């Protein structure tokens, strides 16, 4: 990481848009390491770290965890992976996340995947996920949608203005979404 600039793609989209599902597909076909910021934060809660309670409370409220916490976890995971190509899933979620990541790591994303999906469909998916996530209840889901619209959409707009956004219609079945995703990777990797 120190001597070579890694290749980074941010994977953004609303709660339940399919970021994690599609990243799992991508890493089976392309040589990227998938880092979900949400998964790293949930692992941090489980590990019993001193930040755990704070993180848990913020996730329950659909709020964005302070960027220094998330960035530290991402940097550690990047280093430990030994890879130099990353899909960073669910981060950055606001302008402050974005600016802090670029300032701290000196990394700018090569591309941004944006999974665009209507709220009704995302809500349906989250309510039927059944994986025991503390934020998959209708009250928290509404808060997550609001934070996405107010704080995360501006990040996507920022990268759109830089020509980095690859927008995917995420409302289709998983396999059809992946067909669209593959196109983004294939010309670059061949
Ligand atoms: N599913 C997926 N694709 C489907 C399709 N095409 N058709 C039908 N069903 C589909 O998918 C969700 C569900 O839908 C699954 O059951 C799946 O099978 C099905 P998934 O791939 O998990 O969607 P994803 O977009 O990853 O949804 P997720 O709930 O993980 O998104 P969030 O962005 O809400 O969650 P995340 O884990 O990124 O963040 C959670 C919280 O952590 C945030 O609210 C915030 O409080 C905190 N956080 C931070 O503070 N900072 C960060 O940087 C990151 C997170
Ligand atoms: Mg996810």
From TrEMBL:
Keyword Oxidoreductase: no
Sorted UniProt keywords: ATP-binding, Cytoplasm, Kinase, Nucleotide-binding, Nucleus, Pyrimidine biosynthesis, Transferase
Residues reported to bind ATP: 16-21, 129, 172
GO MF entries: ATP binding; nucleobase-containing compound kinase activity; phosphotransferase activity, phosphate group as acceptor
Cofactor annotation: Mg(2+)
Cofactor: binding details: Binds 1 Mg(2+) ion per monomer.
The enzyme's E.C. designation: 2.7.4.14
GO BP of this protein: 'de novo' pyrimidine nucleobase biosynthetic process; nucleoside monophosphate metabolic process; pyrimidine nucleotide biosynthetic process
Keyword Thylakoid attached: no
Reaction catalysis annotation: UMP + ATP = UDP + ADP; dCMP + ATP = dCDP + ADP; CMP + ATP = CDP + ADP
Residues reported to bind CMP: 97
Pfam families: ADK
Domain of life: Eukaryota
Signal peptide: none
Annotated binding of a ribonucleoside 5'-phosphate, by residue: 42, 63-65, 90-93, 133, 144
Record localization: Cytoplasm; Nucleus
UniProt GO cellular component terms: cytoplasm; nucleus
Purpose: Catalyzes the phosphorylation of pyrimidine nucleoside monophosphates at the expense of ATP. Plays an important role in de novo pyrimidine nucleotide biosynthesis. Has preference for UMP and CMP as phosphate acceptors.
Description of how the protein assembles with itself and partners: Monomer.
PANTHER family the UniProt entry points to: NUCLEOTIDE KINASE
Free-text note on domains in this protein's UniProt record: Consists of three domains, a large central CORE domain and two small peripheral domains, NMPbind and LID, which undergo movements during catalysis. The LID domain closes over the site of phosphoryl transfer upon ATP binding. Assembling and dissambling the active center during each catalytic cycle provides an effective means to prevent ATP hydrolysis.
Similarity annotation: Belongs to the adenylate kinase family. UMP-CMP kinase subfamily.
UniProt name for this protein: UMP-CMP kinase
């Amino acid at each position: 990481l120190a001597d070579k600039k890694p290749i980074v793609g941010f994977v953004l989209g609303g709660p339940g848009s399919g970021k994690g599902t599609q990243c799992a597909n991508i890493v089976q076909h392309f040589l990227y390491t998938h880092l979900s910021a949400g998964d790293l934060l949930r692992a941090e809660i489980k590990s019993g770290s001193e930040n755990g309670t704070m993180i848990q409370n913020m996730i329950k409220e659909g709020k964005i965890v302070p960027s220094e916490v998330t960035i530290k976890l991402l940097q550690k995971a990047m280093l430990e992976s030994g890879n130099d190509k990353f899909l960073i899933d669910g981060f950055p979620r606001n302008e402050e996340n974005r600016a802090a990541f670029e300032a701290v790591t000196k990394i700018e994303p090569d591309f941004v995947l944006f999974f665009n999906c209507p709220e009704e469909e995302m809500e349906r998916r989250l309510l039927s996920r059944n994986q025991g996530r503390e934020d998959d209840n209708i009250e928290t889901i509404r808060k997550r949608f609001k934070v996405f619209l107010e704080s995360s959409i501006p990040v996507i707009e920022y990268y759109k203005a830089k020509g980095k956004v690859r927008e995917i219609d995420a409302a289709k079945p998983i396999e059809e979404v992946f067909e669209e995703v593959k196109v983004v990777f294939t010309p670059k990797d061949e």
